[in-house]
Amino acid sequence: MAFKRIVLKxxxxxxxxxxxxxxxxxxxxxxxxxxxTVTEMGVEVGIVVGGGNFWxxxxxxxIQRATSDYMGMLGTVMNALALxxxxxxxxxxxxxxxxxxxxxxxxxxxxxxxxxxxxxKMVVIFAAGTGxxxxxxxxxxxxxxAEINAExxxxxxxxxxxxxxxxxxxxxxxxxxxxxxxxxxxxxNLKIMDATATSxxxxxxxxxxxxxxxDPDNIVRVVEGEKIGTIVKED
Length: 235
Fold this sequence. Notes:
With 235 residues, this protein is of the alpha/beta class. The chain is 37% helix and 19% strand.
């Protein structure tokens, strides 16, 4: 087993399945099943969910950016609750913590409480991003990983199985990287995560594993230490 405590970053698109928008219940159940397997291996799991299957703040042309970002944060809460429901139906103790308080549906994010819940082998889902506009959920994953002392971030990507030097969907000769440093990502301008998230991971020396979520079993493979996708860490 490669890690004892991880942050799994799931995009909203990954939860939408082939529909690309909304929630695909079968996809969420499939991911939840693998998360349960990982917890049964003794790994403590925090999850950060995106909201792009409902709303992507930066893409709005007619709504003020800060307002649009807050709308996107609400989308992450819907995804978090759906994932919590799927996990609890599999008898996995789960808590949702939100950066924006909405006590009727979830707990407010409190770092010490999150760590304590992880120690009790609960899955903790971090929703509503950082609670601030202009920050991505990738940055949220880096921030939460640093706060809870996670050993790695597992960045599950839909439609791609690692980091390439160009878009493999547009360039059949795109080269896949097996290993990179965070400085490589910044200097080569690789669009796997935004610069803020990349810098935060680099400053806190948090390894990043980028892999494809189209096969949900990859979550288990990464935790077991199998070399798939691309690993990003300092030399």
